Amino acid sequence: MRALAALERRSDAKGAKRVLRLEIGQPGFATPARVCDAAVRAIEGGETKYAAPSGAPRLREAVAEYLVRTRGVAYEAENVVVGPGAKPGLFLPTLACCDPGDEVVYPDPGFPTYAAMCAAAGATPRPVPLRSDGASFDMAALEASVNEKTKMIVINSPGNPTGGVMPREDVAAVARLAKKFNCWVMSDEIYSRLIYDDEEEGGENDEKIFSICALDGMKERTILVDGFSKTYCMTGWRLGWVACPKHLAEKIKLLTVHSVGCVAAFTQIAGVEALTGPQDSVKAMRDEYRVRRDFVVDALNDIPGISCPVPKGAFYAFPSFDFPDVTAQELADYLLEDARVALLPGTDFGAAGERHLRLSYVGELSDLREAMARIKTSLAKRFPDFV
Description:
Order of helices and strands: HEHHEHEHEHEHEEEHHHEEEHEEEH
Radius of gyration: 21 Å
CATH superfamily of the largest domain: Type I PLP-dependent aspartate aminotransferase-like (Major domain)
Helix content: 40-55%
CATH class of the largest domain: Alpha Beta
CATH topology of the largest domain: Aspartate Aminotransferase, domain 2
Shape: globular
Structural class: alpha/beta
Strand content: 5-15%
């Protein structure tokens, strides 16, 4: 990020072409106006004081109803703890559940917070590689990694950085392992409303989301993490939740009291509006992302030396490259300097991300076209043998 900031300053000073930022996982759409209006009304109505540590009752009730509607599983407000974004929903349950010596299994490549939350809890990280298409764990490696010391298995579907969606049979296999070894499953579902192709996993039937918590015997051992950032374009609002058994929710509430305290009341009122109001903005956004995804994947696969599977969800592409004598970090640095396109090296998401890059396709289609053209030109210059 420091290199990106320095390059942008130099570009501004020299009048050079602007940096196209494909590295950030932030929706390219505005928060729905109805949600913003609800927040303004709440502020004007005096909703500016402390809120309940576990979340305003009406938001927790709205989340519980939303989970019934989308996952088909009966949750109550007492199962829900609201936090400032989804990250506390990852960190605080890990702190509540894990002791030093416990092991946490998570995907590699995967969201960097998974490793960080293990470190915070003193737990032993057990990253497990994904299969080549990025959709799911290498299931043989997963089965070899889960044992009596495993306290938690983390799944993320759709996933960051790959955009992969776990097949139902793999989710069921995770559930069987969790039952066999009596461990928690943390299901990071922040991208759950962004599935493009597979109707079995949600897809066009936007309000129906397949979640591991719906499998027999799994609600009581699932920590479901979700939020507003990706679905409702509310990244800066910092609003998310965790749904889990009530005894664990009480522990998370205690940690919330002595850490973040609470979430702003007016933000939570906006969250109620997001969940209970019309959902047409979600479908419109997803439809546009599908167009952008299809363009980016086709453009990447048209570049010699690059191969990109089609991601079924989220808003990331995770192409691999065949160029010799260059690491993912070096290639990302080169494209930033030469093409002025910001991408992330796959190794930012774990050792298994080597020889991959992550890019987001949240930007305008015109910017994505320009970015793909720049990348193709720069790579042809650096690796002429691949042209």
